[in-house]
Structures are given as C-alpha cells and as structure tokens.
C-alpha cells in the first residue's frame, strides 16, 4: 500500500520562501511588529480603508499637525486623536517626548497600539471607557470620517467631552459654518494635504491661537 502522504504536493523551497516573504510583507502592511523592527507607527503601516472613509495625511501635513498638537498641549500634555490616526502615528514617532496620547478610532486594526487605542464609533459619541475622564485632554485633534453635519455634530460631543478647551478640527472647507456652530472653531491658513489627492477641499479649524496661521 502506498503512503498516503505521497499524494500531497510538496512546495519547492523556492515557492515556500516566496510565500513566507509574501506573508511577512502582509504582516508588515497590517502594522504588526516584526523582528526587523518595522516601524509600526509610520504612516501607511496600516493601509487606508476607503470603505471606512479613511484618508491618511501626507507625511508633511501629519508632521505639522503633530508639532502643533505638542505645542498646544504643553509640557507633559495629553493629546487625543479622534479618527486621526496618521497624526497619532506621527506623534508616536517622536518617542520619548514629554506628552501622552490616545487614539480613538473605529478601525480595530489600530488595536495593535495597545492601551492607547480606544474603540470609537461616532454614532455613540459618549460611549467611552470609564477611565477616559471628562476634560482630561489638553488638546483634541479630530477628523470626522464623513462630511455631514450629523457626523460633525456627534463627533463634536466627543470632542467637547474630552477637551479641557483646545480643539484642532480637520474637515472639508464646506463644513466651515457647521464647525463654527458646533465647536466654535475658525478656519486656519494652513491647508492639510493627503497622501492621495481628495476631491473635497480640506481645511483645519481651531479655537485657540495656533501656529497654523
């Protein structure tokens, strides 16, 4: 009787190596840490999911917003990134800096960031963990996923709950009136850019004297 194992096709070592490489690349792309010390915080380490209306900022814009957040938060400050993962990633690249940061995000792939990740669904703006105390962040940076008043209004509830006062909002230029109405923020001169060009004109809005003008 023949050995049953003979029927199972064996992969050549070359194919196996190629397959392993493919899986490794996939792991890296999904933002997991690998032994090569892949930088899990670099922008694009987790790819955009357009179905979740995700659009990452360009490296330059993320750096600029992260720098602004650190200055606005002050020494030892606390920063919350609401649906703004590319700013969170930039902040984390500045390891050892004197600030704390949390990411509130619907996309559970960001749970690779551990305790700083808080699952967030703007449809339930105040459904937040108990340890996230009201008015416990020096600045909140938010980028609501959709350009709709409903989305802005609900995200605004979260922002107002979290912030001690300072707000940095990134959304479409068309949302200027609603942004003023719901959050009291004004448009800055600084124009955020995305890694892929968006059809909608995007702007930043603040309610304090920022370095973005």
UniProtKB/TrEMBL annotation:
Pfam families per UniProt: N6-adenineMlase
GO CC entries: cytoplasm
InterPro entries: DNA_methylase_N6_adenine_CS, Efm5/EEF1AKMT1, Mlase_EEF1AKMT1/ZCCHC4, SAM-dependent_MTases_sf
SUPFAM superfamilies, sorted: S-adenosyl-L-methionine-dependent methyltransferases
GO terms of biological process kind: methylation
Keyword set includes Repressor: no
Catalysed reaction equations from the record: L-lysyl-[protein] + 3 S-adenosyl-L-methionine = N(6),N(6),N(6)-trimethyl-L-lysyl-[protein] + 3 S-adenosyl-L-homocysteine + 3 H(+)
Keyword Ribosomal protein in record: no
Subcellular location: Cytoplasm
Record GO terms (molecular function): nucleic acid binding; protein-lysine N-methyltransferase activity
Keyword annotations: Cytoplasm, Methyltransferase, Transferase
Name recorded for this polypeptide: EFMT1 methyltransferase
Phylogenetic classification of the source organism: Eukaryota, Metazoa, Chordata, Craniata, Vertebrata
């Amino acid at each position: 009787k023949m050995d049953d194992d003979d029927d199972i096709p064996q992969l050549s070592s070359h194919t196996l190596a190629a397959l392993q490489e493919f899986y490794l690349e996939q792991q890296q792309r999904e933002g997991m840490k690998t032994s090569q010390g892949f930088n899990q915080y670099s922008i694009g380490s987790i790819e955009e999911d357009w179905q979740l209306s995700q659009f990452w900022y360009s490296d330059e814009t993320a750096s600029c917003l992260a720098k602004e957040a650190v200055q606005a938060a002050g020494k030892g400050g606390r920063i919350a990134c609401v649906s703004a993962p590319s700013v969170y990633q930039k902040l984390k690249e500045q390891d050892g800096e004197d600030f704390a940061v949390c990411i509130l995000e619907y996309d559970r792939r960001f749970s690779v960031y551990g305790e700083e990740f808080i699952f967030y669904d703007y449809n339930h703006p105040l459904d937040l963990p108990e340890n996230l105390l009201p008015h416990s962040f020096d600045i909140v940076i938010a980028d609501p996923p959709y350009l709709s008043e409903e989305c802005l209004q609900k995200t605004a509830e979260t922002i107002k709950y979290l912030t001690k006062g300072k707000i940095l909002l990134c959304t479409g230029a068309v949302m200027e009136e609603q942004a003023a109405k719901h959050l009291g923020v004004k448009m800055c001169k600084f124009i955020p850019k995305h890694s892929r060009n968006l059809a909608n004109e995007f702007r930043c809005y603040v309610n304090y004297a920022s370095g973005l003008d």
